[in-house]
């Protein structure tokens, strides 16, 4: 245990599902994320000293109770995984909007496990951080899906089907493509959204979506941007969730008119992402933002390379 050391980790926001891979495909984004600071304290167990926004103010909505925050739940799971009993105090700095579909709970959980791991005498390898971070995510969303935690941890585009966990398979997208993410000023509760999804699907639906996901992964493998665009579709989940984001139809129509290869909800929404050629990204972000605002919702937008980095940390004393 490294006494007197303060570790601060940053974990990026992420696009869950990437449209085509419900619960098993995720993409890190640049320019938004959470930070968590961790230091050893004498009192046993994980506590949260405070939760602050990026403006430095105490966060009005998030609990600092250790059993109610994804950061502390994940940090405790990491100590359990490492078989270590110790006292840790966290400070959480929220940069990702809550209930945004941008992997907010995952970013806190990942930043916490990365920070606390560096306090250990023998830090665990990255792949062993996934399971504890998922415990934090599960508290928030009610499911054991890694499509936000995995890209937030390792960066880039990651395939992480539940049946293959803890494997996180990095996928290299076609060259010269970027993501655009817009966040309308709305909130969608992921656990509630998941609770409303159908639990039974037809063989036709299964074959269609499986075909698109297979084609999408092959398109990445072969650097085939036409196949990539053909396959970047969600025919199963998006139709069930679109109505919960009133601006979605208008934003998607604007994106597809502005040369997006595909456009869908990020996670359970309300954020909406599109993927396009690098050269079209700025104009696409403008078109999506304008459509969102014309539909009555102000928004923030991020443009990212497809290889945005995962979590990072720095230490100080
Ligand atoms: N895959 C999850 C869902 C991500 O769509 O419910 C939530 O951000």
Description of the molecule:
This protein is an alpha+beta fold and 317 residues long. The protein folds into two domains: 175 residues, Ribosomal Protein S5, domain 2, CATH 3.30.230; 129 residues, GHMP kinase, C-terminal domain (Alpha-Beta Plaits, 2-Layer Sandwich), CATH 3.30.70. It is 33% helix and 26% strand. It contains ten helices and eleven strands. The strands form two sheets. Strands 1, 2, 3, 4, 5, 6 and 11 form a seven-stranded mixed beta sheet that branches. A four-stranded antiparallel beta sheet has the order 8-9-7-10. β3, α1 and β4 form a beta-alpha-beta unit. α9 runs antiparallel to α10. The chain is globular and about 60 Å long. The mean pLDDT is 96.
Helix and strand arrangement:
Elements: E1 6-16, E2 25-41, E3 45-53, H1 70-82, E4 87-94, H2 104-117, H3 130-141, H4 149-154, E5 157-159, E6 169-171, E7 177-184, H5 190-195, H6 203-222, H7 225-231, H8 238-241, H9 248-257, E8 262-265, E9 272-277, H10 281-294, E10 299-305, E11 312-316
Parallel strand pairs: 3-4
Antiparallel strand pairs: 1-2, 1-11, 2-4, 2-5, 5-6, 7-9, 7-10, 8-9
Helix pairs in contact: 1-2, 1-3, 2-3, 6-7, 9-10
The structure holds L-homoserine (HSE).
L-homoserine (HSE) is lined by residues 16-17, 22-23, 101, 103, 141, 145, 147-148, 190, 194, 267-268.
Question: Which key terms come to mind for this protein?
Answer:
33% helix; 4-stranded antiparallel sheet; Alpha-Beta Plaits; alpha+beta; 10 helices; 317 residues; 2 domains; Ribosomal Protein S5, domain 2; binds L-homoserine
Describe this structure in a few short sentences.
This protein is an alpha+beta fold and 317 residues long. It has ten helices and eleven strands. It folds into two domains: 6-170 and 307-316, Ribosomal Protein S5, domain 2; 177-305, 2-Layer Sandwich (Alpha-Beta Plaits).
């Amino acid at each position: 245990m490294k006494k007197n050391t303060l570790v601060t980790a940053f974990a990026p926001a992420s696009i869950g599902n990437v449209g085509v891979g419900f619960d098993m495909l995720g993409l890190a984004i640049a320019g938004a994320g959470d930070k968590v600071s961790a230091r050893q304290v004498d009192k046993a167990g994980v506590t949260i000293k405070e939760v602050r926004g990026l403006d430095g103010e105490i966060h009005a909505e998030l609990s600092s109770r250790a059993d109610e925050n994804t950061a502390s739940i994940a940090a405790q799971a990491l100590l359990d995984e490492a078989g270590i009993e110790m006292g840790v105090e966290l400070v959480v700095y929220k940069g990702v909007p809550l209930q945004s579909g941008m992997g907010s709970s995952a970013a806190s959980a990942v930043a916490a496990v990365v920070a606390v791991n560096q306090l250990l005498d023998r830090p665990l390898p990255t792949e062993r951080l996934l399971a504890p971070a998922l415990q934090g995510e599960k508290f928030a969303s009610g499911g054991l899906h890694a499509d936000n935690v995995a890209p937030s941890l390792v960066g880039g585009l990651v395939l992480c089907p539940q049946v293959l966990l803890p494997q996180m398979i990095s996928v290299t997208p076609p060259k010269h493509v970027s993501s655009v993410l817009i966040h309308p000023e709305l909130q969608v509760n992921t656990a509630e959204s998941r609770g409303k999804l159908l639990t039974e699907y037809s063989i036709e639906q299964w074959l269609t979506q499986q075909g698109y996901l297979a084609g999408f992964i092959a398109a990445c493998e072969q650097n085939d941007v036409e196949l990539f665009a053909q396959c970047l579709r969600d025919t199963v989940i998006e139709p069930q969730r679109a109505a919960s984001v009133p601006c979605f139809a208008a934003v998607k129509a604007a994106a597809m008119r502005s040369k997006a290869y595909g456009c869908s909800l990020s996670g359970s929404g309300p954020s909406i992402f599109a993927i396009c050629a690098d050269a079209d990204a700025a104009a696409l972000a403008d078109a999506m933002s304008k459509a969102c605002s014309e539909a009555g919702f102000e928004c923030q937008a991020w443009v990212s390379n497809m290889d945005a980095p995962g979590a990072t940390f720095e230490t100080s004393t």
